[in-house]
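Technical annex, item 7. During the second reporting period the consortium partners agreed on a shared format for inverse folding records so that results from different sites could be compared directly. Each record opens with the tokenized structure and is followed by the designed sequence. A conforming record, contributed by the partner at site C, is shown below for reference.
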């Protein structure tokens, strides 16, 4: 890798992990508060802490890591190094996002933006928090344009050729992000900023929540798709196999692009103000977006089995023994995959209207996203870090670092088993999410919940130790002996059929996305605007 590209990628990754550390401290404290073990000192508020935790871990860690990773994929597969325009846009994007993140974090630490990571109305933050968000979003757009530029130039220079799978996936991921962030940009610019500066008195809460979830759901697939990039393209190489099918992988990414966005209402199933038909339609589309995940599961099993059999595995499950269990580059993402099976099943429960009535706003939902984003995605990102950082820094992944990585993964899995397991269970008993009341004045239900909250705190403490180990590992990876580490990109199996060219007809896919979005959102959004009586003044949270 060109040193200048490595610097850009590593800067993103280090920034991401610093956010993970600070977010992890907030997570530990709030787990201990809910377990009834400590009271927060120095006037720190529970919701303030919860905001810091969610923003830094779910929004900042992921976005910086992903952009760094996507740039590395572009450098690797689209010509061997970044073009100056792409690299400069990458830096410009990074600087905007970093400035926005710092400003937002200061606002949260000053208790002027205690609005949780979902930040929709009626809770109102200082206007500077929303200005900070503008910097983050605009910065991410610049980085996105840099990536698209690199891809376009490659295609112009390789007329008639299929683009590399990894680059294609990076483009879909970024395209989805760009289309999704239009929703949050409209919310922030047209609603939250004028309202928080006091230029208008009231805000349409329903519209603000809807614009947020228009963005908020594809956001979770923006986290997931880079993990899928690793599962589809890197894992086959690491296990000594090949990609099962290039066309299947591309189709699954295109399906994500189409169906990730028009599904935000499945976060609003319990809200009045949206008629049942539109909720129903978006739930149908939600079940459509499950299909590419099922395709991914199928493709992974096929990859494992085919590569195992090629190495001589016999019987139905003989391939299991052929997997490289002692290699952290495989082990960490694999634990992520394994966890994604119950995590995805939980998602299907959430999306089912009647069952959503049972779990909505309970700790079950918190349990769900700690399995999806905080385990399947996070462990895959950690698994990527073990080869990406040394590959970029010109270092070797030593056996000791490999060992530490395996220990880190196991610690994470154990901590999450306790934490997310008890969240799921106690959620079914009705324990609410996002509340500072822990003992509920010795109410009988709360007494029943408390042992689970204590188990959550214990799991959270183990997870915090795992965060510390991961941070140590990151910096240790930059100080291992100089040498070569492979950036693993697998080839496609020779049995696969040729990939149809249709997948790179972006005009077709973007038009279809627009049609689906208009179909799912036009009428309900017009209803929300027409029925905006009388608006809300909101709650100032500082
Ligand atoms: Fe979700 C709430 C529905 C996936 C994240 N979700 C959330 C929230 C977050 C989140 C952060 O319908 C909370 C937001 C908030 O703060 O309020 N979710 C779904 C559905 C899916 C889903 C249907 N979610 C995710 C992913 C996330 C994520 C992925 C992050 C990365 N979710 C919901 C709903 C709500 C919700 C409702 C609102 C709840 C409420 O009321 O508030 C699906 O995409 C899941 C499909 C997944 C599968 C699994 C496929 C399995 C694979 C692994 C194969 C494993 C192998 C390993 C090969 C069908 C690919 C080998 C194994 C061996 C045994 C050898």
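Designed sequence (site C submission):
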């Amino acid at each position: 890798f060109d040193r200048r590209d490595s610097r850009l990628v590593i800067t993103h990754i280090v920034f991401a992990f610093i956010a993970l550390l600070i977010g992890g401290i907030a997570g530990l404290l709030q787990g201990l508060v809910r377990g009834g073990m400590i009271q927060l000192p120095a006037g720190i508020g529970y919701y303030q802490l919860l905001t810091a935790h969610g923003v830094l871990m779910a929004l900042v860690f992921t976005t910086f890591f992903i952009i760094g990773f996507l740039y590395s994929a572009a450098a690797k597969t689209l010509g061997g190094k970044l073009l100056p325009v792409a690299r400069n846009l990458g830096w410009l994007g990074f600087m905007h996002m970093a400035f926005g993140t710092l400003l937002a974090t200061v606002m949260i630490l000053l208790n002027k933006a205690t609005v949780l990571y979902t930040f929709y109305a009626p809770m109102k933050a200082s206007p500077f928090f929303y200005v900070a968000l503008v910097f983050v979003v605009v910065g991410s757009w610049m980085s996105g344009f840099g990536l698209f530029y690199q891809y376009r130039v490659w295609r112009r220079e390789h007329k008639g050729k299929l683009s590399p799978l990894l680059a294609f996936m990076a483009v879909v991921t970024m395209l989805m992000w760009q289309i999704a962030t239009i929703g949050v940009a409209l919310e922030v610019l047209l609603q939250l900023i004028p309202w928080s500066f006091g230029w208008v008195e009231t805000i349409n809460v329903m519209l603000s929540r809807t614009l947020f979830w228009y963005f908020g759901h594809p956001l979770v697939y923006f986290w997931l798709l880079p993990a899928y990039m690793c599962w589809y393209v890197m894992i086959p190489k690491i296990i000594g196999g090949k990609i099962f099918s290039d066309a299947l992988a591309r189709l699954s990414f295109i399906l994500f692009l189409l169906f990730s966005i028009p599904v935000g209402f499945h976060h609003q199933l319990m809200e009045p103000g949206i008629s049942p038909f539109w909720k129903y339609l978006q739930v149908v589309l939600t079940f459509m977006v499950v299909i590419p995940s099922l395709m991914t599961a199928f493709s992974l099993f096929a990859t494992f089995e085919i590569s195992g059999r090629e190495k001589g595995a016999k019987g139905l499950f003989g391939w299991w023994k052929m997997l490289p269990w002692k290699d952290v580059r495989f082990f960490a993402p694999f634990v992520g995959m394994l966890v994604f099976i119950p995590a995805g099943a939980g998602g299907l429960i959430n999306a089912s209207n009647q069952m959503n009535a049972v779990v909505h706003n309970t700790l079950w939902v918190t349990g769900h996203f700690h399995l999806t984003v905080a385990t399947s995605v996070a462990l895959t990102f950690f698994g990527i870090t073990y080869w990406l950082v040394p590959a970029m820094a010109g270092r070797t992944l030593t056996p000791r670092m490999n060992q530490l990585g395996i220990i880190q993964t196991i610690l994470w899995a154990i901590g999450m088993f306790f934490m997310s397991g008890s969240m799921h269970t106690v959620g079914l008993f009705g324990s609410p999410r996002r509340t500072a009341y822990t003992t509920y004045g010795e109410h009988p239900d709360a007494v029943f919940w408390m042992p689970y909250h204590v188990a959550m705190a214990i799991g959270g403490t183990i997870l915090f130790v795992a965060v510390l180990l991961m941070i140590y590992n990151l910096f240790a990876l930059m100080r291992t002996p100089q040498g070569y580490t492979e950036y693993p990109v697998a080839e496609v199996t020779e049995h696969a059929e040729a990939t149809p060219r249709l997948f790179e007809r972006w005009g077709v896919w973007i038009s279809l996305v627009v049609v689906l979005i208009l179909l799912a959102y036009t009428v309900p959004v017009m209803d929300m605007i027409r029925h905006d009586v009388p608006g809300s003044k909101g709650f100032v949270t500082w």
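The longest strand covers residues 123-124. The first helix runs from residue 3 to 34. All partners now use this format for quarterly exchanges.
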